[in-house]
Amino acid sequence: MTVLITGGSRGIGAAVAKRFASVGMNVVIHYLQSHEGANEVARSCLDYGVKVLTVTADVRSKEQLLRMKEKLAAHGMQPDILVNNAGTAHYGMLADVSEEEWDQVMAVNLKGMFLTTQMFMPYMISQRYGRIINVSSVWGLTGASCEVIYSTAKGGVIAFSKALAKELAMSNVTVNAVAPGAVDTEMMGHLDQDEKSALQSEIPAGRFAMPDEIAALVYFLALPEAGYITGQVISPNGGWFT
């Protein structure tokens, strides 16, 4: 079995890659610019004795994704499991958002997921088995002030997952979304320590999630035993939103 993780060079993506490698699955780590980060994750995965491949592509570019697909095929690593994790955030009042910023967030979070899924789902359909897991956000469920375009994009990830699940269910390909709450990754870097403490005080669990905890959920959804779970949105958020 092979898993492809987009945005796999750090944070949740890196944790997902290591989790799958730890159970003996071959891993493809996609990245855009973080070459050394991807190689570091790859080295950790290789310690488990699995086959590992790093690939770079702009998920907004169909041409680059086609080249990536050809490279995977040449290495015999067509993915049985696709984790669409690549994304970008934006912070600021909607009144201050430029058209270029809007296009950028939508292109990475939505167009990238669409192109990557469309690129790799035919193989899953042909073998009548596959798992597609899309990483959304709790803000895709509830919305967040000063994160309107990010919330909109992640809400789109959820709608995409629910709709595609219905298309692919008869092919034994499941599609689910994971919508994490606050996770201790670089995406929290815009907050200072006081802001982090204030945010943690709002979360019943009293802390941020660790990337490994999100990776555990992604792994569960990829299991053969999870074949009856499709079109679902699961939000590990420490009781923050229920």
TrEMBL record:
The keyword Oxidoreductase applies. Keywords: Oxidoreductase. It holds the Pfam family adh_short. GO terms for biological process: monocarboxylic acid metabolic process. One of its GO terms (molecular function) is oxidoreductase activity. PROSITE patterns: ADH_SHORT (PS00061). Belongs to the short-chain dehydrogenases/reductases (SDR) family. This is 3-ketoacyl-ACP reductase. It comes from Paenibacillus swuensis.
